Amino acid sequence: MSSQQKNPANRYVSDLKRYGVGQSQFPSVLRSLVPIALSGIFLLLIAIFVAWSQDSFGQEWLIVAVAAVVGGYMALNIGANDVANNMGPAVGGKVLTVLAAVLIAAVCESAGAILAGGDVVKTVSKGIISPGTSIDVSQFRDLMLSALFAAALWINLATMLSAPVSTTHSIVGGVLGGGIAASGFGLINWVTMSQIAASWVISPVFGAACAAAILFFIKKRILNVEDRLEAARFWVPVLIAVMASAFTAYMAMKGLKKIWGPSLVEIVIYSGAAFLIAYLASRPVVAARTTRLQNRKKDIYGLFDAPLIAGAALLSFAHGANDVANAVGPLAAIVSTVQDQSGIASVVSIPLWVMVVGAVGISFGLGLFGPKLIRVVGQKITRLNSPRAFSVALSAAITVLIATSFGLPVSSTHIAVGAVFGVGFLREFLENPNKRTLRPGHKLNETAEDAFNSISFRSVRRLVRRRFALSIAAAWFITVPASALLAAVLYWLLRLL
């Protein structure tokens, strides 16, 4: 007979312990349900808005409502997954808390999406496929809807598994799979696809090289010199000025183009002026701060905090301008077929409410689900500090801005993660010159010199977690075919219905 059967009091104590464990788990379950409930409310509000505006869409308002809800769902997943790549370095460098990173990213993502997202939306919605007369309007709508839903489902699964996949890969794969299911391989614009595919390869390589170059410059010119304070007083304002100049050039070319169209000469002039103003403004600030610091690396790190925050904000702005296309590009294409009864328009007009759905959805998804992947990107691949994180943020921002200026839907995931790996591998290269460690052996050497020379094992200090490189590469490889296959299945189901 067990002790619980002998003593009923033991059984009651055991039941109370199990009840206590169950009660302790309840708050965590409740916390996980709250973001899901808030997301459901957000999607419901989108549906109510479209229903309230049904006079603008006529009898086809229901297809617009469905597409808008799916677009909002896609935007939530972009915020939960892709934005982590922008703010992860700042959090990993311990410059921003997760809450502060979420708030800054939400504001900058929304501003970038609304001010500078139009051209990229047109590229995603109209550049990947060439409908012509091979499919009708109904097929085109089903194609866009299946692509959008497939991409959103795949990103949602990846977020649950803590995998920072590319949302651009997902939506392009969805459009690719849906297009092939609709009308075969001839529907795809393979020239555009090849350009997009090339950008996927170029983005992480360029991001890694740029981040490594920036960090190498910081190390050689500031951190590894004899008088670090004097070097910082000269070079940190220069780096701040470079960032200000790049941001000014981007705003002139993309952010304000609807109300201001400067020439190339004007852009150069304004960018040069921004460089000069930022340099003159930051120089006395940096000089004043260095008077209170010691000539140590850790003291110098703090000088990069403010530039890093500015770089992360710039990166979020560019991400909003670039990746809002992934959320609302197909939605804009569907809306254009409803409002323009002549058929599939060659140029898509982006309504403001469509852009707002994408911007708000990305910000909402970031706040509700983004902190998890922010920690993964910022802390799991390699150890970051302020200069390293600044190099990652500035490199990713420059790469995204260049891509946006060409209207290419590049993957910010590839850029940011590639930059993090670039920083990590540079650290390995610089911090492991001819390092050796002793391996226990069976041979007894006569002298210490013989023992040292007989060492057959040379260790290298690994500063990058290789397993993350393999897992991330696998996720990138799987994303396109998985989302394409899922979109094809969804397209066939929609046609059957």
UniProtKB/TrEMBL annotation:
<keyword id="KW-0592">Phosphate transport</keyword>
<feature type="transmembrane region" description="Helical">
    <location>
        <begin position="468"/>
        <end position="494"/>
    </location>
</feature>
<protein>
    <recommendedName>
        <fullName>Phosphate transporter</fullName>
    </recommendedName>
</protein>
<feature type="transmembrane region" description="Helical">
    <location>
        <begin position="414"/>
        <end position="430"/>
    </location>
</feature>
<dbReference type="InterPro" id="IPR001204">
    <property type="entry name" value="Phos_transporter"/>
</dbReference>
<dbReference type="GO" id="GO:0005315">
    <property type="term" value="F:phosphate transmembrane transporter activity"/>
</dbReference>
<feature type="transmembrane region" description="Helical">
    <location>
        <begin position="96"/>
        <end position="116"/>
    </location>
</feature>
<feature type="transmembrane region" description="Helical">
    <location>
        <begin position="234"/>
        <end position="253"/>
    </location>
</feature>
<feature type="transmembrane region" description="Helical">
    <location>
        <begin position="197"/>
        <end position="218"/>
    </location>
</feature>
<dbReference type="GO" id="GO:0016020">
    <property type="term" value="C:membrane"/>
</dbReference>
<feature type="transmembrane region" description="Helical">
    <location>
        <begin position="170"/>
        <end position="191"/>
    </location>
</feature>
<dbReference type="Pfam" id="PF01384">
    <property type="entry name" value="PHO4"/>
</dbReference>
<comment type="similarity">
    <text>Belongs to the inorganic phosphate transporter (PiT) (TC 2.A.20) family.</text>
</comment>
<keyword id="KW-0813">Transport</keyword>
<keyword id="KW-0812">Transmembrane</keyword>
<keyword id="KW-1133">Transmembrane helix</keyword>
<feature type="transmembrane region" description="Helical">
    <location>
        <begin position="33"/>
        <end position="52"/>
    </location>
</feature>
<feature type="transmembrane region" description="Helical">
    <location>
        <begin position="58"/>
        <end position="76"/>
    </location>
</feature>
<feature type="transmembrane region" description="Helical">
    <location>
        <begin position="143"/>
        <end position="163"/>
    </location>
</feature>
<feature type="transmembrane region" description="Helical">
    <location>
        <begin position="300"/>
        <end position="321"/>
    </location>
</feature>
<feature type="transmembrane region" description="Helical">
    <location>
        <begin position="389"/>
        <end position="408"/>
    </location>
</feature>
<feature type="transmembrane region" description="Helical">
    <location>
        <begin position="259"/>
        <end position="280"/>
    </location>
</feature>
<dbReference type="GO" id="GO:0035435">
    <property type="term" value="P:phosphate ion transmembrane transport"/>
</dbReference>
<feature type="transmembrane region" description="Helical">
    <location>
        <begin position="350"/>
        <end position="369"/>
    </location>
</feature>
<keyword id="KW-0472">Membrane</keyword>
